[in-house]
């Protein structure tokens, strides 16, 4: 038995950090949506009781550190499953980019094994399990558009945003999420207006979405990594409708409605940045079949 599952990248349309909690996690409010840049997860049932994992990408661990492996292990342990699975990850999403690639692979593994192992869990139940793997996994299980609260695990679904092009560029640097949070000073940063973003999505108001993109973590990453700032400025000068950094970075994305303008921006970014993508906004589940 065999199944393919699509694991799309997410972007943050807004990301706010409210305060640091006594348990050391940060209380956040994030509006996230999926884009048509996806890993492909292949799941094959094994009758032997083991988990095998493989990906050709040299930055992705081929062992129990892989979040997809952890997702399979969690289901096996929780439901005492004696069958095994071979997981093959065809990686398209850049690694450690702020696009939740690992979380999306874990979420796709949860969705796929729920079907393959006939567990009949609801999306909500899968998302609750996913929170044990990582804060973004719950959102990724829904595979849609949502407001995420708490440490990211409280997911309130929203309709998909109006269609547009998303141009993404990832400078060739590594950004440590931990360092970004450590350098964050919540007193002196402009906070995004999450409510306005949610309202713009509910109203299907593209300009309203563009007006309210915001990421409180930009205050740190743009200061520490001038490459990220340079890409952001380039996109702003190239006629983007909105530009924002996703997650803690370093990927920056532009929203663009006109295809020809998005194509021009893509071509000019390619001149000085190796990893550039031009994809459609998604915001709703899409199967591979
Ligand atoms: P987020 O946006 O949720 O902070 P990210 O996009 O910044 O995530 P990932 O691509 O998920 O980061 O990878 C972060 C680290 O997780 C990698 O350096 C890698 O070692 C590890 N990892 C574990 N499993 C995976 C996976 N399936 N795909 C990619 N990275 C993985």
| CATH class descriptor of the largest domain | Alpha Beta
Number of strands: 11
Taking all residues together, what is the mean pLDDT? 95
Attached small molecules: adenosine-5'-triphosphate
Whole-number count of domains? 2
Largest sheet: 7 strands, mixed
Cα distance, first to last residue? 15 Å
Helix/strand-derived category reads alpha+beta
Helix percent reads: 25-40%
CATH topology of the largest domain: Ribosomal Protein S5, domain 2
Indicate the overall shape: globular
Q: What count of helical segments does DSSP give?
A: 10
The CATH architecture term of the largest domain is 2-Layer Sandwich
Strand content: 25-35%
Pattern of helices and strands: EEEHEHHHEEEHHHEHHEEHE
Low-confidence stretches: none
Radius of gyration: 19 Å
Write up this protein.
This protein has 289 residues and is of the alpha+beta class. It folds into two domains: 2-158, 2-Layer Sandwich (Ribosomal Protein S5, domain 2); 165-280, GHMP kinase, C-terminal domain (Alpha-Beta Plaits, 2-Layer Sandwich). It has helices at 67-78, 101-116, 123-130, 137-142, 177-182, 194-202, 206-211, 218-224, 226-237, 259-270, and strands spanning 2-20, 26-46, 51-55, 84-90, 145-149, 154-158, 165-170, 214-215, 242-245, 252-256, 275-280. A hairpin with a 4-residue loop joins strand 5 and strand 6 (154-158). The site of adenosine-5'-triphosphate (ATP) has 21 residues, from helix 1 and helix 2. Adenosine-5'-triphosphate binds at residues 59-61, 65-68, 89, 95-103, 105, 136, 177, 247.
């Amino acid at each position: 038995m065999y199944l393919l599952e699509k694991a799309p990248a997410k972007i943050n349309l807004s990301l706010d950090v409210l305060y640091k909690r006594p348990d050391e996690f940060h209380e956040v409010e994030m509006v996230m949506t999926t884009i048509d840049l996806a890993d492909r997860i292949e799941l094959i049932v094994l009758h032997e009781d083991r988990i095998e994992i493989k990906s050709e990408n040299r930055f992705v661990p081929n062992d129990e550190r892989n979040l997809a492996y952890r997702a399979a292990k969690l289901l096996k342990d929780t439901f005492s499953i004696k069958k095994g699975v071979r997981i093959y990850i065809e990686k398209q999403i850049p690694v450690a980019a702020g696009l939740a690639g690992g979380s999306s692979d874990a979420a796709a593994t949860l969705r796929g094994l729920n079907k393959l192992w006939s567990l009949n869990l609801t999306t909500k139940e899968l998302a609750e399990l996913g929170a044990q793997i990582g804060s973004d996994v719950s959102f990724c299980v829904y595979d849609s558009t949502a407001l995420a609260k708490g440490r990211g695990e409280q997911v309130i679904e929203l309709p998909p945003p109006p269609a547009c092009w998303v141009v993404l560029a990832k400078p060739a640097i590594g950004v440590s999420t931990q360092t970004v949070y450590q350098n964050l000073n919540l007193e002196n940063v402009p906070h995004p207006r999450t409510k306005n973003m949610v309202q713009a999505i509910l109203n299907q108001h593209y300009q309203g979405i563009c007006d309210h993109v915001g990421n409180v973590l930009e205050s740190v990453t743009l200061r520490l990594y001038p490459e990220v700032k340079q890409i952001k400025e380039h996109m702003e000068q190239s006629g983007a409708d909105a530009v924002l950094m996703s997650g803690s970075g370093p990927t920056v994305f532009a929203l663009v409605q006109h295809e020809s303008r998005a194509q021009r921006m893509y071509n000019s970014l390619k001149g000085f940045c190796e990893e550039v993508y031009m994809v459609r906004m998604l915001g709703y589940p899409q199967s591979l079949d």
